[in-house]
Amino acid sequence: MDSYPHAAISVSIVWINMLGSDTEDAARRWAPTIEDPRARHFYDPQRRAGRAIAQSLGGQGKIAWDIYLFYDKDSEWNEGPPMPIDWVHQLTGSSWADAARYHVGDRLAEKLRETMKRLTEARP
In terms of CB atoms within 10 Å, which end of the chain has fewer, N or C? Predict the structure, then answer.
């Protein structure tokens, strides 16, 4: 987000307890590492967002986490989440998440920058 300080974006960061250390306390400690007025943090102990997002992407009964979704500015979450216009993930060995969208480390950062650039340049 630092690379796009003037981009008209809204970012929702959902902290899901997938690992034993993924507590609400941990989410509160890590949230300040992404400090931007356009970002909102949520803690989802029941994994509702993760289930709904996985289902919307074809992962019935699965949980999406370590996933980055990009939506159109007019998208709305109604009965379920809208389809993202692009997404990437870090779900190692996932049986449902598209392997072509799997990126980690520098490649993940590069893919996120490429997507942001493409989407911000496409806006009028």
Answer: C
- Can you give the pTM of this predicted structure? 0.87
Neighbouring C-alpha atoms within 13 Å toward the C-beta of 94: 25
Nearest to 73 by CA among 5, 9, 2, 7: 9
The residue range of the domain holding 90 is 11-122
With respect to residue 1, please indicate whether it lies within any of the assigned structural domains.
no
Is the residue at 3 inside a domain? no
Instruction: Classify residue 6: in a domain, yes or no.
Output: no
Residue type at 26 in one-letter notation: A
9-63 pLDDT, tens digit per residue, is 899 999 999 999 999 999 999 999 998 999 999 999 999 999 999 999 999 999 9
